[in-house]
């Protein structure tokens, strides 16, 4: 069951180039949310932009009734959102979508994040850490300044391995090349991925070749966010059939081997 509510902004600040962290008081959504779900956010109190913008639930504190977002300023909506101040309210619809499938407690898992793709994976790692999983996070970005959430992952006892395109932090190069070299495929029970589409496509191919299960979180353009407008259709292969699924209601998380990458 999702809720529509005005959430009070508790904190908002810049954490990296064009990237903002926002904490919101939203006890009902924090209580219901699971990792991989998102909220549909009204970025302005005016008519423009009319459509809500989907943002992943980055973290929750259920005891405090707080949820956090981590977002990159891309266009009009996110630009307006970044200007909100503590004490303002933001209208949220959520939690929406289907989240990640959690593994058996104590499993060894890999988490692969490219750029702002780290946003939903912090909540996931929170949950995996509670389940005493052995977690390795492969974290990639273009440079040191753009690496997100490494401290949060480390605090949750995850092993964090970093790749930057320019070599300013960690491995010089692509996070996928790093993962390919470092990951112990035979021991990994599950891999979770979020990042740019070409990156998720390459990781999905690697997982399929190694026969390791994985899930990807897709960031499609969305209209309604609740399964009614079909603007977020994605092609999913299942039992030899290709069908259109709605990223907002059937996803945004899908098994990596089922996504038909156009
Ligand atoms: C389920 C889900 C979860 C998401 N979680 C996060 C998150 O946690 N943090 C975050 O920073 N972003 C996240 N996104 C992406 C975020 O929704 C978009 O960046 C945001 O809607 C852009 O809104 P805007 O008004 O700022 O830009 P707009 O003015 O809407 O768009 C600016 C430009 O970006 C393009 N664009 C907009 N949205 C997308 C998209 N989804 N994919 C590709 N191109 C796009 C537009 O075509 C346009 O060219 C998520 C998307 C989905 C579907
Ligand atoms: S956004 Fe309307 S059906 Fe998914």
Automatic annotation (TrEMBL):
Keywords attached to this entry: 2Fe-2S, Electron transport, FAD, Flavoprotein, Iron, Iron-sulfur, Metal-binding, Pyrimidine biosynthesis, Transport
Signal peptide: none
InterPro entries found in the cross-reference section: Cbr1-like_FAD-bd_dom, Cyt_c3_hydrogenase_gsu, Dihydroorotate_DH_ele_sf, Dihydroorotate_DH_Fe-S-bd, Dihydroorotate_DHASE_ETsu, FAD-bd_FR_type, FNR_nucleotide-bd, OxRdtase_FAD/NAD-bd
Biological process according to GO: 'de novo' UMP biosynthetic process
Name of this protein: Dihydroorotate dehydrogenase B (NAD(+)), electron transfer subunit
Ranges for domain FAD-binding FR-type: 2-102
Cross-referenced HAMAP family: DHODB_Fe_S_bind
Annotated binding of [2Fe-2S] cluster, by residue: 224, 229, 232, 248
Function per UniProt: Responsible for channeling the electrons from the oxidation of dihydroorotate from the FMN redox center in the PyrD type B subunit to the ultimate electron acceptor NAD(+).
Family assignment from sequence similarity: Belongs to the PyrK family.
Pathway involvement of the protein, from the record: Pyrimidine metabolism; UMP biosynthesis via de novo pathway; orotate from (S)-dihydroorotate (NAD(+) route): step 1/1
Subunit structure: Heterotetramer of 2 PyrK and 2 PyrD type B subunits.
GO molecular function: 2 iron, 2 sulfur cluster binding; electron transfer activity; flavin adenine dinucleotide binding; metal ion binding; oxidoreductase activity
Protein residues bound to FAD: 53-56, 70-72, 77-78
Gene3D superfamilies (alphabetical): Dihydroorotate dehydrogenase, electron transfer subunit (2.10.240.10), Nucleotide-binding domain of ferredoxin-NADP reductase (FNR) module (3.40.50.80), Translation factors (2.40.30.10)
Species per Swiss-Prot/TrEMBL record: Desulforamulus ferrireducens
Co-factor: note: Binds 1 FAD per subunit.
Cofactor(s) in the UniProt record: FAD; [2Fe-2S] cluster
């Amino acid at each position: 069951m999702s809720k529509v509510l005005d959430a009070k902004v508790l904190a908002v600040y810049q954490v990296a180039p064009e990237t903002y962290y926002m904490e919101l008081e939203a006890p009902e959504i924090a209580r219901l949310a699971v990792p991989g779900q998102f909220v549909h956010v009204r970025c302005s109190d005016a008519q423009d932009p009319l459509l809500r913008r989907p943002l992943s639930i980055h973290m929750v504190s259920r005891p405090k009734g707080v949820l956090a977002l981590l977002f990159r300023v891309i266009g009009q909506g996110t630009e307006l959102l970044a200007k909100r101040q503590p004490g303002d309210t933001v209208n949220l619809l959520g939690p929406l979508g289907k989240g990640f499938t959690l593994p058996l407690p104590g499993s060894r898992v890999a988490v692969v994040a490219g750029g702002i793709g780290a946003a939903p994976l912090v909540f996931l790692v929170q949950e995996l850490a509670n389940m005493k999983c052995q977690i390795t996070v492969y974290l990639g970005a273009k440079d040191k300044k753009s690496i997100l959430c490494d401290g949060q992952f480390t605090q949750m006892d995850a092993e964090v391995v970093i790749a930057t395109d320019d070599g300013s932090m960690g491995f010089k190069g692509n996070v996928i090349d790093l993962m390919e070299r470092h990951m112990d495929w035979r021991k990994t029970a599950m891999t979770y991925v979020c990042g740019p589409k070409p990156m998720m496509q390459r990781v999905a191919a690697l997982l399929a070749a190694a026969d390791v299960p994985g899930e990807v979180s897709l960031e499609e353009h969305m209209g309604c966010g609740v399964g009614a407008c079909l603007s977020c259709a994605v092609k999913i292969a299942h039992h030899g059939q290709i069908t259109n699924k709605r990223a907002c209601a059937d996803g945004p998380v899908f098994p990596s081997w089922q996504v038909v990458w156009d």
